[in-house]
Amino acid sequence: MEIKKVPITVITVIFNAIETIESTILSILEQSSIDSIEYIVIDGGSTDGSLDIIEKYTDRIDLFISEKDNGIYHAMNKGIILATGDYILFLNSGDEFFNENALSEIIVHLSGCDVLYGKTAIKYKDSKTSIRDFYPQSRDWKVIPYCHQSVLIKRTVLVETLFNTGYKIAADYDQYFRLKNKNIKFATVTNIISVYDNEGYSALNYKEMLREYMAISLLNHPGVFKKLQIFLYFSLKIYL
Fold first, then answer.
1. For the stretch 164-174, what's the b/e string if a residue is b when 16 or more beta carbons lie within 10 angstroms of its beta carbon?
2. Quick one: pLDDT at residue 43?
3. pLDDT score at 199
4. Domain total in the chain
5. Are residues 195 and 227 in the same domain?
6. Using one digit for the tens of pLDDT, what is the confidence trace for 205-216?
7. String of DSSP letters for 193-221
8. Does 212 share its domain with 111?
């Protein structure tokens, strides 16, 4: 693989997503800052025709791997290890950049920070969208401050904080706390960076995600009162 020295690596993880993969690929290749992007696609051994679509663009994809893996976070970890960009962003099948200038408008804000995140547009089945702002870290006991589609993290930091593959849905939440505990610099932008597909795996397995969130939050917040608050908050959302 020829090393492409660029500010940003965008990684797409896919498995049997024939209906959504092309729009994701195009939203990346159509970025006005494409010359500043390394693009990696990690496929988990799709059998539904997704590979035929990806093959149409392999001359514009810097690295494409198709092989069986142990789930989405195992695949995302592969991408982190293979990336050469200074910062990494994950835009998995079904997700898209907000517009063609999504990355060019925020590259200038990367200097001096380890984690940079912005707003996210959430796309629903009826084609309606809503805007999710990022949350203050003071609320991280119940929600991750950012969507992973709208966060860029320094590669050297990510290599030291790979996703915990023991989690099936909320490994990004676990990773956030490990990043926070490293005492690194977080920064925000007001830009809408990406469009998140609300029909994705975590949205369709909402209660399982909440259970993982509760377990992770309890591990990362000391104190009896705070743990009781966390337990009650998530239990009500899970069982009501």
1. bbebebbbbbb
2. 97
3. 74
4. 2
5. no
6. 889 999 999 999
7. EEEEETTSHHHHTHHHHHHHHHHHHHHH-
8. no
- One-letter amino acid identity for 218? L
Q: Judge residue 81's burial from the number of C-beta atoms within 10 Å of its C-beta, 0-12 exposed, 13-18 middle, 19 or more buried.
A: exposed
Q: Beta 129-132 vs 115-123: how paired, if at all?
A: antiparallel
Q: Which amino acid is at 119?
A: K
Tens of pLDDT along 50-82? 999 999 999 999 999 999 999 999 999 999 999
The token pair at 92 is 């998995």
Is the same domain home to 184 and 224? no
Query: Buried b vs exposed e over 187-212: b needs ≥16 C-beta within 10 Å?
Result: ebbebbbbbbbbebbbeeeeeebbbb
Q: How far apart are CA 89 and CA 71, in angstroms?
A: 18
For 127: left if phi > 0, alpha if psi spans -120 to 50, otherwise beta; the answer is: left
Structure token pair of residue 224: 């009896």
Structural domain range at position 119: 8-199
Residue 100 token pair: 């063609």
Same domain? For 195 and 230 the reply is no
Same domain, 156 and 215: no
pLDDT digits (tens, 9 = 90+) for 99-143: 999 999 999 999 999 999 999 999 888 778 899 999 999 999 999
Same domain, 84 and 169: yes
